[in-house]
Amino acid sequence: MTECPECAASVENSDKVLGEVFPCRDCGTELEVAATEPFSVQPAPREAEDWGE
Amino acid sequence: MSEGFRLGIFYTIVRPEEKALLAAAEARGIPTARYDDGEVTFGLEPPADLPGVVINRSVSHTRSVYATRCFAHYGVPTVNAPDVVDLAGDKIRTSLRLAERGVPTPRTIVALSPEAARKAIDRIGFPAVLKPAIGSWGRLMAKVDDGPSADQVIEHKSALGAPIHSVFYVQEFVKKPGRDLRVFVIGDRAIAAMYRRSEDWRTNAARGAAAETAPLTPELSELSVRAADAVGGGALAVDLMESERGLLVHEVNPTPEFKVLAATTGVDIAGGIVDYAVGVGRR
Questions:
Q1: Does A33 have pLDDT greater than 90?
Q2: For chain A, domain boundaries
Q3: Contact B274, B21 (CB under 8 A)
Q4: Would you give the end-to-end CA distance of chain B in angstroms?
Q5: Does the beta-carbon distance from A53 to B34 stay under 8 Å?
Q6: Is B212 at the interface with chain A, CB within 8 A?
Q7: Which uninterrupted H or E stretch holds B84?
């Protein structure tokens, strides 16, 4: 369990892996798993111009 | 599997696709090595403990181009190969290659200045589509219906500043039946296909298009494999449109998303990519 860096809502580590990106359930901010032990999150990288498939 | 063989995953962020690849490797008993594209560094001498193969899943075209070259420098093959990443990540080079190989593709004109862009659009005719040469998910694409809107889009693109925005990729607007097709090709085989339906003229899954399984007809499979082969082959997603002239290939994606395609068709795409990559690593 940790906090969303944007809205401070509780964020649970339910089977998430390092680097996984997911939205905060409260504020919708895209978060990235920064560490699993102990669990911590950070804002996900912002989409850059050359991103794509 | 020989002792010590590891499968590398080079990534920007971990999405369902990357999780599926890691899970597929684990299910096959293949150890994985993860390379975060924002953290990894590449020296000129090969580091110790290299993986047997790397699946490139970076969403950055620029990082993908250089990283796959660096892994190749170390003697580590990548899926996809550096030349494939370089070529298929650039819509202009892809169009040239598709034309060279006789793969049907929309009428396209490249212009290298704002003035030339307007001439290119006039030659293509209205409506015309302007796409960025690099990048996807339907961003920075514009459909221009007349001269004034063409001038505005050209002006806005030029104002973005970077030299690449003064390279104009102009394409005919293909009247498609409210959907396009995505086919996943691994090696010499098309393994899954879906329709992407949207009210928007852009039918990217990233823009919320609805998906539906499409039959892999011999014509669709053969054309998709030809398109993938034209850019060098590997694990690629080929995007096609149904037009009055028949099927047209408009993109070949070298780092494709497949979450929606796998869920829609039930095909184990992640497993297919891992098996293919292991085969490449064992060559």
A1: yes
A2: 2-43
A3: yes
A4: 13
A5: no
A6: no
A7: helix B82-88
pLDDT digits (tens, 9 = 90+) for B173-195: 999 899 999 999 999 999 999 99
Whether residue B127 lies within 8 A of chain A, CB to CB, comes out as no
B237: containing domain: 175-267
Contact status of B89 with chain A (Cβ, < 8 Å): yes
Residue B2 belongs to some domain of the structure = no
Check: complex ipTM more than 0.90: no
Domain count, chain B: 3
Token pair belonging to B6: 């590891």
Burial of B29 (0-12, 13-18, 19+ CB in 10 A): exposed
Residues B166, B202, single domain; the answer is no
pLDDT at B3 over 70: no
Instruction: Report residue B19 as tokens.
Output: 């999780």
pLDDT higher than 80, residue B205: no
CA neighbor of B237 nearest in space, from B192, B188, B171, B178: B192
Please indicate, yes or no, if residue B93 is contained in any of the structural domains.
no
pLDDT of residue B254: 97
Other beta carbons within 10 angstroms of residue B87's beta carbon come to: 20
Shared-domain flag, residues B162 and B186: no
Q: Identify all chain B residues contacting A22, using CB atoms and an 8 Å cutoff.
A: none
Model confidence at B234: pLDDT above 70: yes
A2-43 architecture in CATH? Single Sheet (2.20)
Residue B100 domain-assigned?
Answer: no
| pLDDT band at B104; cut points 50, 70, 90 | very high
Interface contact A33, partner B, CB < 8 A: yes
One domain, residues B180 and B262: yes
Question: B216-226 pLDDT, tens per residue?
Answer: 999 999 999 99
